[in-house]
UniProtKB/TrEMBL annotation:
Residues 47-120 form the Blue (type 1) copper domain. It holds the Pfam family Copper-bind. It comes from the Bacteria. The keyword Amino-acid biosynthesis does not apply. GO terms for molecular function: copper ion binding; electron transfer activity. This is Blue (type 1) copper domain-containing protein. Keywords: Copper, Metal-binding.
């Protein structure tokens, strides 16, 4: 009878010991290493005061340009390489990703003085 109790205690001690050890050396709460995925920042062109600001910009192939109309008057971004925004109301945006190297002129058809140029470098 004493042997049974003794072996029972032994089992409890061993189990408790294993539990303690696995708890201690088990998977630690590692903070996952942040993966450095470069997020290309979109280039912003603000449409304000009947002008594209900035009107002359140089970007890299694959960059995205985002136009934001801050005027109460509607404007468009219309031009080379498929640039064709709808009529942008106040605070509306138009984005375009340039995947071709070259020079892209654009304008706003209702307002001929509004012009801009995007130069896309490799
Ligand atoms: Cu306009």
């Amino acid at each position: 009878m004493n042997k049974i109790i003794l072996s029972f205690v032994l089992v409890v001690v061993v189990v408790a010991g294993i539990f303690y050890m696995t708890k201690k050396s088990g998977p630690s709460h590692q903070t996952p290493t942040p993966t450095l995925t470069p997020t290309p920042t979109p280039i912003t062109v603000v449409i304000k005061g009947f002008a594209f600001n900035q009107s002359l910009i140089t970007i890299r192939k694959g960059d995205t340009v985002v136009w934001t109309n801050k005027d109460s008057v509607s404007h468009t971004v219309t031009g080379d390489g498929g640039l064709s925004s709808p009529l942008l109301g106040q605070n509306e945006i138009y984005s375009f990703t340039f995947n071709t190297v070259g020079t892209f002129n654009y304008h706003c058809p209702p307002h001929p003085s509004m012009t801009g140029t995007i130069t896309v470098s490799p």
